Amino acid sequence: MAARVVLVEPKYDGNVGSVARAMKNFGLSELVLVNPCPLGEDARRRAMHGIDILEGARTMGSLAVAVKGCGLVAGTTAVDTRSEKRFARISSTPREFAERVRGFGGRMALVFGREDDGLHDEEIKGCDALITIPASREYPVLNLSHAAAILFYELHQAPSARRRVASDMERGKLHDAFSDLVRATDYPRHKVERTQVMFRRLIGRAMPTKWEFHALIGVYTRATKRIARLEAQR
What we know:
The chain has helices at about 15-25, 40-45, 50-55, 65, 95-100, 120-125, 145-155, 170-185, 190-205, 210-230, and strands at about 1-10, 30-35, 60, 70-75, 105-110, 130. It is of the alpha/beta class. Helix 8 (about 170-185) runs antiparallel to helix 9. The longest helix is centred in the C-terminal third of the chain and has 23 residues, at about 210-230. The radius of gyration is 19 Å and the shape is elongated.
């Protein structure tokens, strides 16, 4: 699978170098940095054989630009919840995520936040899935490069899939069809964004197959058209 590693506003160049080294270990090559700190000798020294990845890293001014062209955006977070009401923060472990994205044929972005306060709420809202690494409750926050290495390892170990996962374009159409249905039902405006985020998380965790995609979009499209016909008959 093709994966782009995105580091959002990294503060220590040594961490960037270590992430580049971990990428080399597990066969990843595309590194994008969002408003990074200056990269100096410490970054180069820690990159080791991943120096080519470090030197080829692209710098972007925003996360939105950094993940452009990626059909699946997965953000990492140290803050997890199992509360159904806080669905925007429900996450998967690296192993669970790796299992779910087997067979994904598009490009995904693996997004890592700032060393001190991670990804901000607005950045998290734009993610299709969240990943949390289970750790000790006494000290659950991992070093950036350590967290990256764990995720890269699990993705590298995941066996090949036997199912055909819906493509980027198909999942995009599914999100559009759901939004159309929400609007057609006169859903309360103050709940629209929250519900769309919930649906994005649901689809991001489920990674529907092509058959499931066609079944779901058929239902949503049919319902939206039915509502429109009934409205026109009034």
